[in-house]
Amino acid sequence: MARPLPLSVENLSPLLRWVVPVLVVLLAIALGAAFGLSLALLTLAGGVLCGSIWLLWSSLQGLTGEAPLTLEEALSLGAPSAEEEQKRAVLRALKDLEYERAVGKINDADYASLAEHYRNEAKRLLRAVDDDLGPERERAEKILAERLAARTGAASAASSPAAPAAAAAPRSASAEEPEPEDGAEPAVAKSPSSGAAP
């Protein structure tokens, strides 16, 4: 069974990319002539909104490698983990504790012991969140390295063999110049056409 092509800019024909906006404008003109300017503007705004959502969705598909995303995965992306929720609660408790100390509800000794307890708990939770993200961080770094390698490989294949030799020539000439001492200004090279002696 053939896998359906995902809806993205690359898969749509160039004709369809122009036909849909033109149809929205024509529909807005027709509705504006029949029912007034407000409905025409509303139709144009709806078309722009739908187009913006489609462009954002297409860019997200490009970032994720056009992998299908299920509803459960989409919901889990936005849901915080238990450690993150606990971390927020502990940080909120620290903030409330500082407020209570500032208004005089608790004394400094109680504040110090409670603040130390909450800070230690927050550190533990931060470490737990970082440990949970470890495999995802490694996966993201691997994907990034692969994409960068693919880009540099394509860029080096596109460059001509004469380009590295030309780029190396100025470096070798500048390597012969002595380094300026601390506080001294570097020597400025004059062009031969300027008429000034170096």
Question: What does this entry look like structurally?
Answer:
By secondary structure, this protein is mainly α. Among the domains are: 57 residues; 75 residues. 73% of the residues lie in helices and 0% in strands. Helix 1 packs antiparallel against helix 2 and helix 4 crosses helix 5. The longest helix has 51 residues. The protein is flat, with a radius of gyration of 31 Å.
Radius of gyration: 31 Å
Helix content: over 70%
Distance between the termini: 75 Å
The average pLDDT score comes to 74
The largest β sheet comes out as: none
State the secondary-structure class: mainly alpha
Poorly predicted regions are 162-180, 182-198
User: What is the helix/strand order?
Assistant: HHHHHH
- Beta-strand residue fraction: under 5%
* Contiguous helical run count: 6
Shape: flat
Record field, number of beta strands: 0
Main features:
flat, 6 helices, single chain, 0% strand, 198 residues, mainly alpha, disordered C terminus, 73% helix
Structure at a glance:
The protein is mostly helical and 198 residues long. It is built from six helices and no strands. Helix 1 packs antiparallel against helix 2 and helix 4 crosses helix 5.
